[in-house]
Amino acid sequence: MEKGNHTSASEFILLGLSSRPERQQLISGLFLVLYLVGAAGNLLIILAVASSSPLHTPMCLFLSHLSLVDFGFLSATVPKMLVNVWTQTQSIPYGGCLAQIYFCILLANMDNFLLAAMAYDRYVAICHPLHYATMLSPRVCALLLGSSWLLASLHSLLHTLLMVRLEFCAGTAIPYFFCDLLPLLRLSCSSTRLNQLMILLVGGLIVLGPFLGVLVSYVHIVSAVLKVPSARGRRKAFSTCGSHLTVVILFYGTIAGVYLSPSSSRSAGRASLASVMYMVVTPALNPFIYCLRNEDMQGALRKLVSGKASSHRL
């Protein structure tokens, strides 16, 4: 192969969120706080669900997996960004970039699947309360979670392997603080038609399927709640969905901001900021969103933090 404008890149340059060093330091401080708060909050939720029997429900099981995913989101991107700022470097090895792509796609897919599973949980609880135990039995929950992790892993592996076959131009600067799929495809000197086709076909199915599941679930939920005669009953029913709906809006809204933006430089800046929302801010906020209205979760967290959790709870 001719040498020149083509290269098998050994590393990429992460441009981050600002080219000004003073702003980079400020941003890194904010990211460090978000990482510590988010990591602690998500790990506490996982431990609380595992140690408190009142939280051994399908919804809390899905929530614990969502917390694991959010912890993964934070850990896959923020530590590398902090190291780059503190060491005044911007590079990431080719293998590290591929690893970020794999885990970010995996975790984004799992977020998508889990939000759909949680919407289904709310649908069953409100529309079919008498059949809740059978429609969301331990076997059904295990099937939902197992198939979600399997599909997410295979989908992520597909895009990572398709990325390995590409060659890259001399410029390897990524206008994000982490390696993302679309910016890398724009840097490639090889044909990316197969990559784009798989994003459109497979990615479209994996994203739109759960999204439509969430949408259909809430259409049925709203229809059922509006039939409740008392205003108090309607408020109580809607309140059980408030936390989940907030997270759904945050997740899909920021995903749209990243992946539906035109590829101009100004739009790339907006997409980079939107990526901060769904990769860092939303995972850090989710524990607080879900704990605000869940008294059982609050009680379990208080016992866990104070060290008074009963020894017989597993």
UniProtKB/TrEMBL annotation:
Q: Which SUPFAM superfamilies match?
A: Family A G protein-coupled receptor-like
- MF GO annotations: G protein-coupled receptor activity; olfactory receptor activity
Lineage: superkingdom: Eukaryota
Q: Name one Pfam family in it.
A: 7tm_4
Q: Where in the cell is it found?
A: Cell membrane; Membrane
Q: Does the keyword Transmembrane helix apply?
A: yes
The record's GO CC annotations read: plasma membrane
Domain G-protein coupled receptors family 1 profile: residue ranges: 41-290
Q: How does it sit in the membrane?
A: Multi-pass membrane protein
Name the principal localization, coarsely classed.
membrane
Write the signal peptide boundaries. Answer: none
**Positions of transmembrane segments:** 26-50, 62-79, 91-110, 130-152, 164-185, 197-226, 238-260, 272-292
Instruction: Identify the keywords attached in UniProt to this record, alphabetized.
Output: Cell membrane, G-protein coupled receptor, Membrane, Olfaction, Receptor, Sensory transduction, Transducer, Transmembrane, Transmembrane helix
Q: Kindly indicate whether the keyword Transcription regulation belongs to this entry.
A: no
Similarity annotation: Belongs to the G-protein coupled receptor 1 family.
- General function of this protein: Putative odorant or sperm cell receptor.
Q: What protein name does the entry list?
A: Olfactory receptor
